Amino acid sequence: MTGRIYIDLFTTLDGVAQAPGGPEEDPSDGFPFGGWQAPFPDEEIGEAIGQGIDELDALLLGRRTYDIFAGYWPHHTDGPEGGIGRKFDAVPKYVASRGTPALEWQGSSQLGPDLAAEVRALRERHASIHVIGSIDFAQTLLREQLFDVLTLWVYPVVLGQGKKVFPDGAAPANVTLLEPATSGPLGVVQLRYGPAAGPVQTGTMGS
């Protein structure tokens, strides 16, 4: 079995992926727009997100996102979000951290320092490994092309500040569109890309 690494990110039109879920999710650097995703309860996009959650059999998270998830999802295994909570609670959770965090959520373990080797090992153990949020960690995976599918849910809002999926200084890289873009009635667009080899090419249009 060779599993696949999925990076799932909610982003604004200007590429901001910080704190889509709520005001307290990540207020670092004085970010004032936490919860910007909430005004767009798009059922069609929600179904696509839910399908990915149903299929995942492991979570791969950065330290900050892990702490947010560990503080929330184990306590939300009933009610409207119960299916997500039970799924996240049940699957193995792998955490990338330079420190030595206390990983008390059941099924949690810390990745070793050799990221490429750790990702290869996860692919041998799991079929569908999802990175959700975890912007800084996701940028490392993107830079090293240690992913198979990058899913961006792009929301029709511009914030002008916040942590971006591709900040200034991001490594140049090619990607390939894996399937046609889809959109919901509220203007949220789903884009799925895979890594593409080779250096970024340039040229002159029309030549």
TrEMBL record:
Q: Per the database record, which ranges form the Bacterial bifunctional deaminase-reductase C-terminal domain?
A: 6-179
Gene3D superfamilies given for it?
A: Dihydrofolate Reductase, subunit A
Q: Which SUPFAM superfamilies match?
A: Dihydrofolate reductase-like
Leader sequence residues: none
Pfam families associated with the record: RibD_C (PF01872)
Q: Which GO terms describe its molecular function?
A: 5-amino-6-(5-phosphoribosylamino)uracil reductase activity
Instruction: Specify the superkingdom.
Output: Bacteria
The alphabetized list of GO BP terms reads: riboflavin biosynthetic process
- The protein's name in its UniProt record: Dihydrofolate reductase
